[in-house]
Amino acid sequence: MPVLKVSSGDNVSSSIRYVALGDSIAHGYGLGNPEKDSYVGQVKQYLEENYDYVFAENFGTNGMRSDELLDILTNPENDMYNKYHATLQHADIVTISIGSNDLMHLIKLDMDMKEYIEKGDAIFRGACRRFDENFPRIIAAIREIVPDAKICADNVYNPCNGLKEFKDLHALAERYINLLNRTFTENNGYTLVDIKSEFDKSEDKLVNMALKGKEIDPHPNKRGHALIGKIVIKAIAD
């Protein structure tokens, strides 16, 4: 793990800089105390237990898609471009949670199945193709800003696992989440954090999956974030 040693006389202390990028999962949406209970908060706590000084910034943004993150990182006209670059250029560790919204914003509980049969497959496959183009460019942009940082990227879990009332939606989500997750590969400039496999294996209820009008809440609950935090920390420590 990258470490910056700061010497003052005979005393030597260590510091580390952590930046979290991504969507509402990184943000900690739906948690009572996201600063503490989100997986980003848990990573920060882990670092604080192992370093004298920890500088952490959470850029997790509700609803963020891969094209939006890519634009922030690569478009100087974007309002957040300078802030992201100024923070990332000093990072030792970068975590990324992105991809869920590329698909999930297309899924509604009141979907017209006739329309889906006619147009849905092309729409979802198109979203997966765009993510496949965007994500490698996101990694490349981060690498250009901070070549030596350790980058850990989460893949996408299926929020409908084990929920009988969402059986049809589970099958739909599983098909395209698996397609989208093909974009995530090992040894491509970052460390893959396989959230999908860990959520699939777990027998715990890890997501809110609550109904909100005609939409669903697919975000991790406190237990879900605890599991994500555990495996992200393992990836950072390895």
pLDDT averaged residue by residue: 87
Ranges where pLDDT stays below 50 over 5 or more residues in a row are 3-10
Elements, N to C (H/E)? EEHHHEHHEHHEHEHEEH
- Class of secondary structure makeup: alpha/beta
> What is the total tally of β strands?
8
Main sheet record: 6 strands, mixed
- Number of helical segments? 10
Report how far the terminal alpha carbons are from each other: 8 Å
The oligomeric state is single chain
Q: Residue share in helices?
A: 40-55%
Strand percentage lies at: 15-25%
Shape: globular
**Radius of gyration, CA atoms, in whole angstroms:** 18 Å
Characterization of this structure:
This protein has ten helices and eight strands. The N and C termini lie close together (8 Å). The strands form two sheets. Strands 1, 2, 3, 4, 5 and 6 form a six-stranded mixed β-sheet that branches. The protein is of the alpha/beta class and 238 residues long. The model is unreliable at 3-10 (pLDDT under 50). It has helices at 24-27, 34-37, 39-50, 66-74, 81-88, 100-104, 113-145, 167-181, 195-201, 222-237; strands spanning 4-8, 11-22, 53-58, 93-97, 150-154, 191-193, 210-212, 215-217.
